[in-house]
Specification:
Helix content is 18%, strand content 29%. By secondary structure, it is α+β, with helices and mostly antiparallel strands. A hairpin with a 5-residue loop joins strand 27 and strand 28. The longest helix is centred in the N-terminal third of the chain and has 19 residues. The protein is globular and about 70 Å long. Helix 3 packs antiparallel against helix 14 and helix 4 crosses helix 12. The strands form 10 sheets. It has an 8-stranded mixed β-sheet with strand order 33-34-36-35-37-38-39-40, with helices on both faces. Strands 4, 5, 6, 7 and 8 form a 5-stranded antiparallel β-sheet that branches. Strands 9-10-11-12 form a 4-stranded antiparallel β-sheet, with no helix packed on it.
Length: 834
């Protein structure tokens, strides 16, 4: 690649030699100012590809609803591939006209280049943890006997795919510490394959288990319990409905076909089952779920032949999970008759709920987690979305407080085999600090790393309170650089979720700090529908009360404007998955309130979401259009896809999705953007960014996170009127850095270099030519496979905090959060949440 003749060879050599030592502010100089009007160089609204409209329509309780883009639900059609290619071409060309897009990308890349660690797990005198040296696409799993020695590399997913899209999922170590079972996901899909490694020899066994999804790995003697679905039809792997999950036991050395079926329910297709075994391998615990909240719980004595399955909790009205087994008693965390949660002791000979004994009674705050550390229990509560914690004995007597460094959240790792424990602390301005403690001694910092040229003291997070439409008071975290003037013109990003009992807790994101460095403000409101204040807070944002979530978000935006943080011309909204629904609903209800909107992997078609993959499991939060007339009319009234009105000027929109998203299928984003392009006003752009070989967010390689974050934040800052100017000299240096980055290929053991944005533009070189590609007739205008059932549902229909580590949806922030989110602690119940 030729370099522009701006520098002499000596100058280029000097930069090559010293580039890694130059602080980023020497390379890039910015002048940021918020303006009342967009920059003069605002790109024109692009000419969109022509998009075919079909004649499909559905009758919901005598109301006929058109669905002209039904053909987009067929993710294997050549017509759709051409349309996606055309859309990506337009989006790429638009983003390339933002003068500071590549500069932001380089700054995000530099800020993301720092070591990160997960919370260690101790097993049989060894420690296991994951580590990313900086720019590796995926974290690597390590083992050591002491943190003073060189660790042993166990699994490096970076070597399993050239593009970094193979990611490590659940891992589990056998009781004797000899075998490692580990799950691998490819191209962002929820599907996983489990392999086994003999850690005494380092050799990988021949055993491979396929078609796992939403599964735990639970060791028992020389094998594991796991959950899987039947193999889907060829070509339907990413779109087939996930039903009739079963639990199996696999013995090492046997082929998967010989695995023993442990549990199934032939009468209920829409149930999921998760197996867990206690530390001493005496009891099997079986979780049964039918949605994203609530579970039945059963137990079976593994040491008694033909032992019966004991029912501990019989229905889905509460969430009950195992903490530990001690002296033959079960210790369970539950919200049964305790919306904020409690810890109970259960005698397996009398397991009925009326016999449960309170160990930690319900408090005013949410009981977030309880972990065993030797003969003590470490419990953490969420107090206004920030953690507090304390140690207790098994009678419930408090022993000492867990000292935390500030306003943030912690995650804990421990076991009954040792009084050693680990916990992480993170906040909006502080990357994860890993602490190590033993017994009653104060914990020490084990891992504490920061990005280069980053000082957390330059930023501040405040917690404010605002009042929603119906008088409900909600907290909101506001983060900005210290000393920023609240003049009503600051570029502000409102990020929200509000659903599935998931808590929006403080978390660190390197790309977000770059946004803050350019005068941005991050606002994260705590919305109803989440789990921050227990069961009642969650239920207040579900089904026929879902509008509360949108009202809360609108009230948060109005607060930011009233308090002079920003204005409607400088305010953007962003959210992922269920948060993408939030973005779509709020921007269609109040298009005047925002200048820009970024829905990521969003649920945007509320009339058909349940017809794809695991969508049926979300009905407990949403209800479905098939339930009854009232539920249909409620969904229809806020469904983003169905509330785009002709001629209305909606905020500039960048919808982001992945072509391998088999949780919220990308057809949601396709249909929404097609509708905006056809019906929305003409002053603002409505763009679609489809990433290749990525899914709902789980396991997305860092290179793609950096590219996506640069596109998103440059789009947001540009639409909000931020002017980021660079000198000619610094632009030339930036271009050199870019060329060096793309031209360099490092060793597998070194941090993986960031790749350029994946293009789907092989056969489309400009927007007009790309538009021609999408004009061929659809393969089918009925359903993906051409068949329709009586209610209009396809006979084979389309297929993401997420696994237990993703339940908070940081997964789905997709803004490059780099706190330790890949912890390898055991999973209790993995539910198919958004």
């Amino acid at each position: 690649m030729r370099l522009k003749p701006l520098f002499t060879n000596l100058t280029i050599l000097h930069i090559l030699t010293n580039l890694s030592f130059l602080p980023i502010f020497f390379l890039l100089t910015f002048n940021v100012a918020a303006q009342d009007e967009p920059p003069r160089s605002m790109p024109p609204v692009p000419r969109y590809p022509r998009t075919n409209q079909g004649q499909e329509r559905d009758d919901y309780f005598t109301t006929v609803v058109r669905d002209p883009y039904r053909w987009m639900e067929s993710d294997r059609s050549s017509q759709l591939e051409n349309w996606i290619r055309a859309q990506n071409t337009i989006t790429k060309k638009y983003l390339e006209q933002i003068p500071y897009r590549r500069l932001l990308r380089n700054e995000i890349r530099a800020r993301s280049n720092y070591p990160r660690y997960s919370i260690p797990v101790k097993k049989n005198d060894h420690y296991f943890y994951s580590h990313n040296s900086g720019l590796q696409n995926q974290s690597v799993l390590y083992m050591c006997q002491s943190f003073n020695e060189e660790p042993v590399k166990l699994i490096d997913p970076n070597q399993m795919s050239e593009d970094g899209t193979s990611s490590l999922g659940t891992v589990a170590i056998s009781k004797d510490g000899r075998y490692l079972a580990w799950a691998l996901s490819r191209a962002g899909s929820d599907w996983q394959e489990v392999s086994f490694t003999d850690m005494t020899t380092g050799e990988q066994l021949e055993d491979v288990l396929k078609w796992l999804k939403f599964s735990n790995i639970a060791w028992f003697e020389d094998g594991i319990f796991y959950s899987r679905y039947d193999e889907p039809k060829q070509g339907k792997e990413l779109v087939a409905r996930n039903e009739f999950q079963k639990v199996y036991y696999h013995k090492l050395g046997e082929p998967q076909e010989k695995d023993r079926l442990v549990f199934q329910n032939v009468d209920e297709a829409q149930r999921n089952f998760t197996a867990e075994v206690d530390e001493e391998e005496n009891w099997l615990f079986l979780y049964e779920t039918e949605s994203t909240y609530g579970n039945c719980l059963y137990a079976q004595n593994l040491r008694e032949q033909d032992a019966p399955l004991i029912t501990i909790f019989p229905d889905f009205s509460a969430e009950t999970t195992l903490v530990t087994v001690k002296d033959g008693k079960f210790y369970l965390k539950t919200d049964y008759q305790a919306p904020n949660g409690r810890l109970v002791e259960v005698d397996p000979s009398h397991p009925e709920p009326q016999n449960w004994k309170d160990i930690l009674a319900e408090r005013d705050s949410l009981l977030e987690n309880v972990t065993r550390t030797g003969d003590r229990l470490l419990a953490t509560w969420l107090v206004d979305a920030s953690s507090s914690g304390a140690f207790f004995d098994f009678s419930g007597k408090e022993l000492q407080q867990l000292q935390l460094p500030g306003l943030g959240v912690c995650s804990v790792s421990g076991s009954g085999a040792s009084d050693e424990y680990f916990f992480s602390f993170t906040s909006y301005t502080q990357p994860g600090i890993i602490y190590r403690g033993t017994g009653t001694a104060p914990p020490d910092v084990l891992f504490n790393t920061l990005p280069k040229d980053y000082n957390s003291g330059d930023y501040e997070t405040t917690r404010v309170w605002f009042t929603s439409k119906d008088g409900t008071r909600c907290p909101m975290f506001i983060t900005m650089r210290k000393g920023l003037d609240r003049n009503g013109t600051n570029p502000t990003l409102l990020y929200g979720y509000g659903g599935f009992n998931i808590c929006m807790k403080p978390s660190f994101s390197a790309p977000r700090t770059v946004f803050l460095d350019h005068g941005g403000i991050l606002a994260v409101p705590i919305l109803r529908g989440g789990g921050e204040y227990g069961k009642s807070w969650h239920e207040a944002g579900t089904k026929l009360q879902k509008q509360n979530v949108f009202d809360d978000c609108i009230a948060a935006a109005e607060y930011l404007i009233a308090e002079k943080y920003t204005s409607n011309q400088h305010l953007a909204i962003h959210g992922g998955s269920n948060g993408g629904l939030l973005v779509g609903a709020v921007m269609t209800q109040r298009p005047d309130l925002f200048k820009a909107a970024v829905p990521v992997v969003g649920v945007l078609d509320m009339l058909r979401y349940q017809k794809f993959t695991i969508g049926w499991a979300w009905a407990d939060d949403y209800g479905t259009s098939d339930d009854n007339r009232e539920m249909f009319e409620y969904l229809y009234a806020y469904s983003p896809l169905h509330n785009v009105k002709k001629g209305v000027e909606y905020p500039a929109t960048l919808a982001i999705t992945g072509d391998h998203d088999d949780r919220v299928v990308p057809a949601h984003s396709y249909k929404f953007i097609a509708t905006l392009q056809a019906n929305g006003g003409r002053a603002n752009p409505y763009l679609l960014r489809v990433d290749t070989r990525t899914g709902h967010g789980r396991g997305k390689p860092l290179s793609k996170i950096i590219d996506e974050s640069a596109d998103m934040f440059s789009f947001i800052l540009f639409q909000l009127g931020a002017s980021i100017e660079t000198s000619f000299e610094n632009r030339a240096i930036e271009e050199l850095v870019e060329q060096l980055t793309t031209a360099t290929k490092e060793n597998a053991d070194k941090p993986a270099e960031v790749k350029l944005f994946d293009e789907l533009t092989t056969n489309a070189t400009d927007a007009e030519e790309a538009g021609k590609l999408s004009q061929e007739p659809p393969d089918s205008i009925t359903n993906p496979d051409g068949n329709t059932s009586d209610d209009g549902e396809a006979s084979q229909e389309s297929a993401e905090t997420a696994d237990a580590e993703n339940h908070q949806e940081n997964s789905n922030d997709n803004s490059g959060q780099t706190d330790p989110s890949d912890e390898i602690k055991p999973i209790n119940v993995e539910q198919p949440e958004l």
